[in-house]
Structure formats: structure tokens, C-alpha cells
Amino acid sequence: xxPLWQWNLTDIVQALHRGEVSSEEVTRAFLERIQAxxxxxxxxxxLEPEAALHQAREADRRRAKTQxxxxxxxxxxxxxAVKDVLTVRGMPCTCGSRILEGFVPPYNATTxxxxxxxxxxxxxxxxxxxxxxxxxxxxxxxxxxxxxxxLSRVPGGSSGGSAAAVAARMVxxxxxxxxxxxxxxxxxxxxxxxxxxxxxRVSRYGLxxxxxxxxxxxxxxxxxxxxxxxxxxxxxxxxxxxTTMDVPVPEVVLSQEPDxxxxxxxxxxxxxxxxxxxxxxxxxxxxxxxxESLGAEVQEISLPHTPYAVPVYYIIAPSEAxxxxxxxxxxxxxxxIQGETMWDIFFKTRGRLFGPEVKRRIMLGTYALxxxxxxxxxxxxxxxxxxxxxxxxxxxxxxxxxxxxVAPSTAFPLGSKTQDxxxxxxxxxxxxxxxxxxxxxxxxxVGFDQDGLPIGMQLMAPPFQESRLFAVGxxxxxxxxxxxxxxxxxx
Length: 491
Hints:
Layout: H1 9-18, H2 23-37, E1 44-47, H3 49-65, E2 79-83, H4 110-117, E3 121-126, H5 160-167, E4 173-177, H6 184-190, E5 193-196, E6 217-221, H7 224-234, E7 264-268, H8 278-293, E8 297-301, H9 309-324, H10 342-353, H11 356-369, H12 375-395, E9 401-405, H13 421-425, H14 432-437, E10 441-448, E11 454-460, H15 466-478
């Protein structure tokens, strides 16, 4: 029998429901796993082990008292972690930044509250690139997270802490956020399943904003089935977030028969170009052939504006960031560096406590929004963004899903791209289009390279067709075992 820390979310929920294991046993197993592997991986910025164990014991008492288990919260006593850009009442929320050091929010993000209402126990907050700006989790002011498959490599970003925690089996599942690929890319680098919903499907209330028209809250899990399990508890209209859509959230029922007959899968030629690592390309093509062997019809398609994803994103996202981050001034949140005047306080606090990548994006965005440049940069980028949406609309008239690599390479060495921002930005070239178009995406492992590093594939679907992603991803995982591999870590 596998140790408890190797159990996936679905196994834990079912075992708790059947009374085969207690919440305290499960929670203690994951806390011991965290203690054994931290700080080598540095997946966490904050932990609350005593509070978690207390909640686990309360869950067990509640379960023991009930006469009808079906009346209990569906995820009662299940431990999870939350990326440190989402507010959890009573827990620090730093966003990986010194400028929010010591800030403890008095309220829960909607996604966090919905998980708590479902019975989840929050073990702690995971590491992140500062304000979710990065692709490697090296931009955290509190130090980088390391990839569990190779501690000299990055876990991806910006949800690298959550991805590494799930990959190392320190938690069965974690919340992340995806603005330009920040759930899917670390999922691919760490060999786990990363799910990004349609923009407007999941509330952003309580998410510290980076790019407001791009941010989404997603999940990092061991399996697609786990992601599907969490989805109904996160999705749905929220009156506190005006961008959420009042669209029914379907019940996700995954078939036990991996039959994909009638499914049309599109393969965009622009995602298989020079610069993609040959082993990544080979593994993704093999995964697509596997979908074909399950009955899917595969055809080549074109998403012609893909090459413009990086310049468009890095005008729109920094522009929104420059406005969103104006509120961090040393007056309302976090620490303050004293000065002789109000402006002196602003300049010193922001200058010393924001990290270099955040400053770079604030300056990029401020420039793009400035008088004389707004029409030339920001307005034009928004027009091209419309073309991305049209590319996908046109493609989805021909196919049901799109399959593609998540990133051009596998996890790269720590420090190898920190001095070259453009090389770092290009890591997101295949994930950015889904955010620009607002469509859902799902990433999962489909192989390993010669260095033993995971390779990920992503599926993209039309807006609000998350169930289609889950069905196809689950069919793939039902007939392969890449997602079951565990990093060879020794406490």
C-alpha cells in the first residue's frame, strides 16, 4: 500500500468518505512530508501545522457524529495549499514581495472561501514570483523554489511553489493563478496537472491583481480527475467580481471508457517551429498519436497570430500591472520606509521594496500608457488581442480541442535566464494565447526528456467547455502512467 502522502486527491476524498482513514492521519502525513523536504525545495512561504491538525481533528469528530455522511461537506478534512497571491484570512499574504511583508488580510478570497465551505484544510501559502510576475519562481523576494525532479532546475512560474508542492507530494492539490501560463507552465516543468479555467468562470475576488483582464485562478493536482473534482467548488458567479459570468457550472462526470471517437483535435503548426526542443516535440506528437489511437480525429490547423503573443502580452499585462500596483505605496499595506515628505515615502518604499522584475514591468506599462504612446502601443495591442480571439473562434469551427506543447523546453537551470528578460518571456510563448483569448487550458505530463525532466502537453477548448478538457485529459491519463511518476526525493 502506498504511503498516505502519495495518495491523490480523489483517493483521499473517497477513503475519508468510506472511513478508511482519518483526516488527522492524512494531514499529519503531508505535514511530515513537508517537514522532510523543506527548505530544500522551498515550496512554502507560510505554514500553519498546528491549526491544520486542529481542523483535521474537528473534521474527524464531525464525521464521527453524523448519521448521514452525504450531509457532510464533500471535501471535509482534505488538506490543500494556496498560492501566496490569494488572500486567506489570518495568514500572511506577501505575493512574494517585501512590499507586503507582514500584511495579514482580514478576509478570504472567494475561491478560498468556497474550498473552506467544502471542508478543505489550508496547510499554508506557496511561493510565487513577486506579484506573479515571472516564469521560474526566481523573482520571489524570499528565494527561489526548486524543481523536485532536479533541485538545480526551476519549477516554472509563477505558481512554481504550488506545482513543486504537488509534484513532491507535499500536498495532494494546490491553488495557483494563470495570467500568461503561470499554472500550465509550472505544471509541465514539474510533471503535474495544471488547469486554467475560462476567464470569468472563477472569481478573482481576493486575488491580488496583476493583469486584471488576464488573471485566472486555477489548480495544480496529480491527475485530471482531481482537477475535475475541484472545479465545481471553485467555479460560478460571484457578485463581488464583475467579470464573473453567470453561466451554469456543469457536473463533471468522467467516463471509465477512454473512447474519443468523434472528437476532432487540432494541432497548430505555429506551435511546432524552430526553437522547440526536439524531445518536447517528439513527446507531444506521441501524445497526440495516443489520442488518435483512442479514436480522436487529428488535423493540422493554423493560429496565425501566435508569433505576436509575447509583444502583445508584454504591453497589455504590464500596462494593467502599472495601474494595479500603484496602490502599494507604504501608506496602506505592508512596511513603510520613512521619508521627509509623502512623495519621499512613496519613492523610497516602492524603490527599495519592489523587486527588479516588478519595477521593469511597471515602467514598461507606464510607458505604454503614457500620453503620446497609448495609441501606438496599448490600443494597438488590444486590437491584435482581438485577432487572437478570432484565430481561436475560427479554429474551433473546425475542431473540438487544440493540442500543443506547453513550453518550448523542459525545466531550465536556476539562474540561466535571470539576466535575459526576453529569453525568460519567450518561455511563455505557447501559453500566452489562451490568456489573451480568455479560453480554458489543461496541461499534463506526456513524457520525460533525456535528463529525466517532465514534458507537458496542453489542451485548449472553446470558452466554458472545461468539461471537454477534463474528459479528454482523463482518457489520456487512464491509458498512460506519466502522471503517476514521483520525483526521486529522499528526506
